[in-house]
Amino acid sequence: MPLYSKLNIPKENTTQSCVVFLHGLLGSTQDWDQIAPVIAQSHPVLLIDLPGHGRSQSTVLDEFLGFEQTCQLIVESLLQTPYQSFVFVGYSLGGRVAMYLSSHFELPSSISLCGLCIEGGNFGLRSEQDKQTRLNNDIQWAERFEQQPIADVLDTWYQQKVFSSLNPEQRQVLVTKRSDNLGHSIGMMLRSTSLAKQPYLLDALHRSTIPMLYICGEADNKFQHLAEQSQLTYQIIAQAGHNAHVEQPERFTHVLNTFLQQWK
């Protein structure tokens, strides 16, 4: 089943690359509502709901082929557009998928990936012990999403350290917003795209010649450390945590627009 996607075309004709936005776990195309319209003033924009999310909730992945299948579905969405050149912007899970697509997935000759902007995406785990620990953790979360009321699970989910910059009001807003998700669909995505099943991507990214930018919030200590150690070009968003594009949309948009200037 194809993924839901939405194409925004600038009012004026443009030869710019199409900017593809991929949301994070529990998100949807709506997560980019404060970013995409600004970018769409100068670039074509393609918003995609990942499998198990938004209007792609009914799309099912194989537990062991999640990244390959997700990338194939994304490519099918790209082929439905009139464009051949694409810049990917991915947040968290969406960032991991975008990095995998750029480094480990064979694109058809009619598609060119010419840029990559990653927000808070993990490059992967090196040790088998770390992978097993992460897999066990993701399976536990998947079982909770599948078996318990989603609002209860989300309340605990947003207590995780990576979301420590959120205040109680922000947490409650997210719990309410994300409660539209189907628990079994989120469980499926957690199992099939677990960080434990993702290759370590940074070495392949270093070999790539396409422009890349890594973005993270200044309060997101874990991913700021990853950015600093990565040897990639990175930008810190002030007064933001793990979800910088939602917490500071204007600053995020400015950074992204600056990155996109190189294709003008």
Please tell me about this protein's structure.
- The chain has 264 residues and is an alpha/beta fold.
- It has a single domain (5-126, 199-263), classed as 3-Layer(aba) Sandwich (Rossmann fold), CATH 3.40.50.1820.
- It has 11 helices and 7 strands.
- It has helices at 36-39, 66-79, 93-104, 128-147, 150-157, 168-178, 183-192, 202-207, 221-230, 244-247, 249-260, and strands at 5-8, 18-22, 45-48, 85-91, 112-119, 212-217, 234-237.
- The protein has a 7-stranded mixed beta sheet with strand order 1-3-2-4-5-6-7, with helices on both faces.
- α9 links the parallel β6 (212-217) and β7.
- The longest helix is centred in the middle third of the chain and has 20 residues, at 128-147.
Question: Nutshell version of this structure?
Answer:
This protein is of the alpha/beta class and 264 residues long. The chain contains eleven helices and seven strands. It has helices spanning 36-39, 66-79, 93-104, 128-147, 150-157, 168-178, 183-192, 202-207, 221-230, 244-247, 249-260; strands spanning 5-8, 18-22, 45-48, 85-91, 112-119, 212-217, 234-237.
According to DSSP, the number of beta strands is 7
CATH architecture: 3-Layer(aba) Sandwich
The main sheet comes to: 7 strands, mixed
How many individual domains?
1
Report, as a whole number of angstroms, the end-to-end distance: 35 Å
Which structural class do the helices and strands define? alpha/beta
Question: What Rg, in angstroms, do the CA atoms define?
Answer: 17 Å
Query: What is the mean predicted local confidence, pLDDT?
Result: 96
Any low-confidence stretches, pLDDT <50, length ≥5? Answer: none
CATH superfamily: Alpha/Beta hydrolase fold, catalytic domain
Alpha plus pi helix count: 11
Q: Give the amount of beta strand, in percent.
A: 5-15%
**Series of H and E elements:** EEHEHEHEHHHHHEHEHH
Function: Catalyzes a proton abstraction reaction that results in 2,5-elimination of pyruvate from 2-succinyl-5-enolpyruvyl-6-hydroxy-3-cyclohexene-1-carboxylate (SEPHCHC) and the formation of 2-succinyl-6-hydroxy-2,4-cyclohexadiene-1-carboxylate (SHCHC).
Protein name: Putative 2-succinyl-6-hydroxy-2,4-cyclohexadiene-1-carboxylate synthase
Domain AB hydrolase-1: 19-248
GO biological process, one term: menaquinone biosynthetic process
